[in-house]
Amino acid sequence: MPMAPPPAFDTLTIADIARLADEDRLPPVERWHPDHCGPSDMRIARDGTWYHQGSPIGRPAMVRAFSRILRREPDGSYVLVTPVEKLDIDVEDAPFVAVELKAEGTGKDSQLAFRLNTGEIVTASAEHPLRFEEHADGPHPYVHVRGGLEALIARPVYYELAERALADDQDPTGLWSGGSFFPIAP
What we know:
Distance between the termini: 45 Å
Number of strands: 14
Number of helices: 3
Helix content: 10-25%
Order of helices and strands: HEEEHEEEEEEEEEHEE
Strand order of the largest sheet: 3-2-1-6-5-4
Largest sheet: 6 strands, mixed
Oligomer: single chain
């Protein structure tokens, strides 16, 4: 049975997003412990493009299916896991990219929801915190997705977040979402 395409993000309210997130049933990858089978010949580039044997995977439904069986191991590595096999996958930065932002409310009442490059939706909260890492090429913002998996927040989305943070005039500068505060500066 093929996976249904994700709904149009711009038409959703924060309440719709919360409902969809609650309804999304992921496979229980944390309970699967098959033997390690070796490399998958797959990698996820920093821009969120998935590759197999050096070629981009062009079918979004295939990328979405693989993303649902992705797991972060205790040593920080990434694997694709099923009940019968576990394969290594190389990840250049984060396995997901937050490509779109939906924001409602202001200050402590803010809700910040992100659509990922895989179609998955996550709302920043204590369970899905935002974090900001300083790199030589500038800040790298992330949102926790699940089980140690994060999404790098795309630069245009980061600019939207920075604009909101500056408009809220918090000290320290940061963002509220889901009742939690996330400082931008370390």
